[in-house]
């Protein structure tokens, strides 16, 4: 069944809002929110929520998190951009593994299990899409979840490498 992306993004962001407010982190959303994908509403919310929760958890106070939707070439791309701690280069290949956490000692107070991103990866694959990550230690991270659009033209909607959107790309429409 077609799932409205606006509902998915709003639900995911709503659930992260309390934690974000306690750290004075503003979450902005924007872009092509009036688009649909085929799939499971709850699984998609879970996936986006994991990305937003991470963006908030691994960012310092008074930073910004952007959630931007971009529909092109038959794909709906949901980008979650943060200005947080980032991920060291040698850990970037491993963050999607089950139970992997970059720095268990330092991130103990965030209380995670290391399952979030492996779930995101599975939800992406189950929907014929993918998840990609770009990160610069000390500057922030961008995660993109891409799912074929519900109204894509025949033959489009294939995933491939793209360049990450910047925070200003992502939040512009939401301002
Ligand atoms: P869980 O999501 O199960 O509560 P978790 O957040 O530790 O626990 P993942 O979401 O799978 O697990 O993330 C794995 C690791 O990747 C995290 O422990 C963290 O070190 C790193 N990470 C994930 N997202 C970010 C991000 N936006 N910025 C910096 N580091 C991140
Ligand atoms: Mg997590």
Automatic annotation (TrEMBL):
Keywords: ATP-binding, Cell membrane, Kinase, Membrane, Nucleotide-binding, Phosphoprotein, Transferase, Transmembrane, Transmembrane helix, Two-component regulatory system
Any one cellular-component term (Gene Ontology): plasma membrane
GO molecular function: ATP binding; phosphoprotein phosphatase activity; phosphorelay sensor kinase activity
Domain Histidine kinase as annotated: residue spans: 1-151
Compartment(s) of residence: Cell membrane
GO biological process, one term: cellular response to phosphate starvation
Record's protein name: Sensor-like histidine kinase SenX3
Annotated source species: Promicromonospora sukumoe
Phylogenetic classification of the source organism: Bacteria, Bacillati, Actinomycetota, Actinomycetes, Micrococcales
Residues of the full protein shown: 226 to 400 of 442
């Amino acid at each position: 069944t077609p799932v409205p992306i606006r509902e998915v993004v709003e639900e995911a962001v709503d659930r992260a809002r309390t934690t974000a407010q306690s750290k004075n982190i503003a979450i902005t959303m924007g872009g092509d929110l009036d688009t649909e994908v085929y799939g499971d509403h709850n699984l998609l919310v879970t996936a986006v929520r994991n990305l937003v929760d991470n963006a908030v958890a691994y960012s310092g106070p008074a930073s910004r998190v952007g959630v931007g939707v971009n529909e092109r070439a038959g794909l709906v791309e949901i980008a979650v951009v943060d200005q947080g701690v980032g991920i060291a280069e040698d850990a970037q290949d491993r963050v999607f593994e089950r139970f992997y956490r970059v720095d268990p000692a330092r991130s103990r107070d965030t209380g995670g299990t290391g399952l979030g991103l492996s779930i995101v990866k599975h939800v992406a694959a189950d929907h014929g899409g993918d998840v990609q990550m770009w990160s610069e230690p000390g500057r922030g991270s961008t995660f993109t979840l891409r799912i074929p659009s519900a109204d894509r033209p025949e033959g489009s909607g294939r995933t491939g490498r793209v360049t990450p959107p910047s925070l200003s790309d992502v939040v512009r429409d939401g301002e």
